[in-house]
Amino acid sequence: QVQLVESGGGLVQAGGSLRLSCAASGLTFTKYNMGWFRQAPGKERELVGTITAWSGRTTIYTDSVKGRFTISRDNAKNTVYLQMNSLKPEDTAVYSCAADLLRLHEYDYWGQGIQVTVSS
């Protein structure tokens, strides 16, 4: 079965950094674009950014994190990462990874999500 498992979340002070990992299994990882999403309390889920299946081209869609967040992947480890620097309280959210086979922002598989809390 396909599984996406996020790790690396938790509580961090404003200005600090976290790196989230999403480990994939049960799928041919190099066939999938990967996305990172987040959902803050009282807000809709938003697409933070994506990384392409093989070339690893990244796009950040959330304007407020541009220059602070970076997406990468290690195909040998079937893992995608979200490096979050200079964290702000408004970054507090549940972060989820997702896999997109057709590479059209139509996501086939989702992780359970992981909490990131940024304190003032």
Describe the overall structure:
0% of the residues lie in helices and 51% in strands. Strands 2, 4, 5, 6, 9, 10 and 11 form a seven-stranded mixed beta sheet that branches. It has a four-stranded antiparallel beta sheet with strand order 1-3-8-7, with no helix packed on it. With 120 residues, it is mostly beta strands. β9 (93-100) and β10 (109-110) form a beta hairpin. The mean pLDDT is 96.
Distance between the termini: 40 Å
SSE pattern: EEEEEEEEEEE
Regions with little confidence, pLDDT below 50 for 5+ residues:
none
Number of strands: 11
Main pleated sheet: 7 strands, mixed
The proportion of residues forming helix, as a percent range, comes to under 10%
Radius of gyration: 13 Å
What percentage of the residues does DSSP assign to strands (E)?
over 45%
Protein structure class: mainly beta
Structure annotation, total helices: 0
Quick one: overall form?
A: globular
Mean pLDDT: 96
Gist of the model:
This protein has 120 residues and is mainly beta.
Outline the fold blueprint.
Elements (H helix, E strand, L loop, with lengths): L2 E5 L2 E4 L4 E8 L7 E7 L6 E6 L6 E3 L8 E6 L4 E6 L8 E8 L8 E2 L3 E6 L1
Parallel strand pairs: 2-11
Antiparallel strand pairs: 1-3, 3-8, 4-5, 4-9, 5-6, 7-8, 9-10, 9-11
